[in-house]
Design brief:
The complex is a heterodimer of chains A (282) and B (294).
Chain A (H helix, E strand, L loop, with lengths): L5 H28 L4 H4 L12 H17 L3 H32 L5 H10 L9 H10 L6 H9 L2 H12 L3 H9 L4 H12 L1 H16 L3 H6 L8 H10 L7 H21 L1 H11 L2
Helix pairs in contact in A: 1-14, 3-14, 4-7, 4-8, 4-11, 11-15, 13-14
Chain B lengths: L10 H28 L2 E3 L6 E3 L3 H8 L1 H34 L4 H9 L6 H12 L5 H8 L10 H29 L3 H9 L4 H12 L1 H18 L1 H7 L11 H11 L3 H32 L1
Antiparallel strand pairs in B: 1-2
Classes of the chains: A mainly alpha (282), B mainly alpha (294).
Chain lengths: 282, 294
């Protein structure tokens, strides 16, 4: 603070509070709807305070109710989405840290060719090669499999670049000392590089978990059977095929359940989240 | 940049890069090559034979009114999203930079939309504004606005723009906050001693010094509006009403999977790739500049 300006500070607080209200309102409104009955939801305006069907709706959504709407239980959908998010996050970190290690600490034939191949993938998001990638998935028999849902999303340049940038900051003296002490490449990786990368790994994990959880186009393409849907895809199907019998209270509760895990990750691991976000975009 | 101290060996590093190169080749380069190839061919309706047609698919795509319409839709959509999300993020960051008390609480409460999937963000706003059950839609109608995003294209566009920007504000906010913290305090103090008030300090010092951040965010937001918003449009409007919200990415998906037009969809994919390459080049040139700034 440079000078005292009570009015200005008050104004800043007020606009921040206003911003938070605008940002939070859609989520709050859906939460309110998730505690009410379908009849109440379909006769707006909805009172802006939670109703008394919280337990009923969430128990209904979690234990069987959603099966009546989309054909698959929420438990199964949450399980699928968790598998996808965790596999993408873990797989991407392992694959990228290995290739970054090779590219920074070794000199081998085709090194620069591989480097540019990885770099170029930045320019080829799934969205620009939808149909041919789908055909490759069909040819490989990966439709409706967890492998198909996760493997193609594991290779990307961003994580590799983050590790590369970090590895370049490790002083040569450290590598030299390790080698004089007789450490081979594997031992150096396990005992020095991995412990040093801990904070980067944690930050990346948070970002990649959210990335995996919020995927849309890819799961939409590679799943035909409802049992393999992620929760986001299942919800979008529920809404586009809505009819008079749709139990909206359960749809609302499912929407909240679908948002809860990644939001909890962001709020609880905020420090890693901010670090991961700011650094992986450099 | 090169290291002086390296490990010997050829087989080990090749094994280490193998997983990433394998996945990249199978799921990135091979499909991209297929897109390039099939953009030059035309398949008969049964998929039995294909004939080489050169750049005919591109000529057809680029001269079709549907594609040009979609290009216009994408431009309006991306510009609106980038403008709205950047302005909101900048205002919140400037305010958060002013207050001392409660800064972390504000940050926590402003960043969570980042974790909401784009499609879900679209649904949240649809629940608020759907003519059948949205409370805000009812309020709008009572206020005399003929609100129906399912029939009115402009209103549908407004709905997806707001939903897409809502999700992106937290991202911009975090980067603007980081950018403002990197500005030396002494500069701002010197201006304050010279008698510049908060507004003047913002426009003559803070905002100009933030320009690398702003430019970077402009590119990121454009890429986001182009590609990551597919979920919002697919879940909320399905490109409608009457193609009013059909962006380029949605059209590639729709022509390829619903219309089954392989050559046309591939030609559109190739055009999109060219756009991504251009945006990436711009971004990297900027990153080079940012290094000198810091």
């Amino acid at each position: 603070m440079i000078e005292r300006r009570p009015v200005g500070t008050l104004l800043a607080h007020l606009s921040l509070v206003l911003g938070i209200v605008v940002v939070a309102f859609p989520i709050y409104y859906t939460f309110v709807a998730s505690t009410r009955t379908t009849v109440e939801i379909l006769s707006p305006p909805l009172p802006l305070l939670p109703g008394d069907h919280f337990l009923e709706n969430y128990a209904g959504a979690l234990f069987g109710g959603v099966g009546r709407i989309g054909g698959v239980d929420v438990m199964r959908l949450l399980f699928n989405t968790t598998v996808v998010a965790l596999a993408i996050a873990a797989g991407k970190i392992v694959i990228s840290i290995l290739s970054a290690y090779a590219i920074v600490f070794f000199r081998f034939p085709l090194r620069m060719v591989f480097f540019w191949m990885i770099f170029l993938t930045l320019m080829l998001p799934v969205e620009v090669r939808i149909l041919p990638t789908y055909k490759v998935m069909v040819d490989l028999g990966l439709i409706d499999t967890y492998t198909g849902l996760t493997l193609p999303l594991m290779a990307s340049a961003t994580a590799t670049f983050l590790f590369r940038q970090f590895f370049l900051t490790i002083p040569d003296e450290l590598v030299e000392a390790a080698r004089i002490d007789g450490a081979g490449p594997w031992r150096f990786f396990r005992d020095i590089l991995l412990p040093l990368s801990k904070t980067n790994i944690a930050a990346l994990f948070v970002i990649l978990f959210i990335y995996g959880w919020t995927q849309y186009l890819w799961p939409l393409l590679v799943t035909n059977r409802n049992e393999m849907n992620t929760i986001v895809i299942a919800l979008s199907k529920m809404i586009s095929f809505a009819d008079a019998a749709t139990e909206w209270n359960l749809v609302m509760a499912t929407t909240i359940l679908a948002m809860l895990p990644p939001v909890a990750v962001v709020v609880l691991m905020q420090k890693w989240f901010v670090k991961g976000l700011v650094e992986s975009e450099k | 940049m090169h290291r002086r101290v390296l490990f010997p060996g050829t087989l080990l590093p090749l094994l280490l890069v193998a997983p990433q190169i394998a996945i990249t080749s199978v799921f990135f380069f091979w499909p991209a090559y297929r897109a390039l190839e099939s953009s030059l061919y035309r398949e008969d309706p049964f998929g039995l034979s294909s004939t080489f047609v050169g750049l005919e698919n591109f000529r057809e795509v680029l001269s079709s009114p549907g594609y040009l319409h979609s290009l216009g839709v994408t431009a309006v959509f991306s510009l609106s999203v980038a403008l709205l999300a950047l302005t909101a993020g900048l205002v919140f960051a400037a305010m958060a930079d002013r207050v001392l008390r409660g800064r972390t609480v504000y940050r926590t409460l402003l960043i969570w939309p980042y974790a909401v999937a784009p499609a879900l963000a679209g649904m949240l706003w649809l629940f608020l504004f759907s003519p059948a059950m949205g409370t805000l839609a009812i309020w709008l109608r009572r206020a005399g606005v003929p609100w129906d995003p399912l029939l009115n294209g402009d209103q549908a566009m407004l709905l997806v723009v707001v939903a897409a920007s809502w999700k992106q504000v937290s991202y911009n906010f975090l980067f603007f906050v980081a950018g403002m913290q990197a500005i030396p305090r002494s500069l701002i103090e010197a201006a304050a001693i010279d008698g510049a008030g908060p507004a003047r300090r913002f426009f003559t010092i803070i905002f100009p010094l933030l320009s690398p951040t702003t430019f970077f965010l402009l590119v990121v937001n454009t890429v986001y509006a182009f590609f990551d918003t597919f979920g919002i449009i697919h879940a909320v409007t399905g490109g409608g009403p009457a193609r009013a919200t059909e962006t380029l990415v949605y059209k590639v998906y729709n022509d390829g999977f619903v219309g089954l037009d392989l050559g046309g969809s591939s030609a559109q994919s190739v055009i999109l790739m060219a756009i991504v390459v251009a945006l990436t080049v711009i971004q990297f040139r900027y990153v080079e500049r940012k290094v000198h700034y810091a």
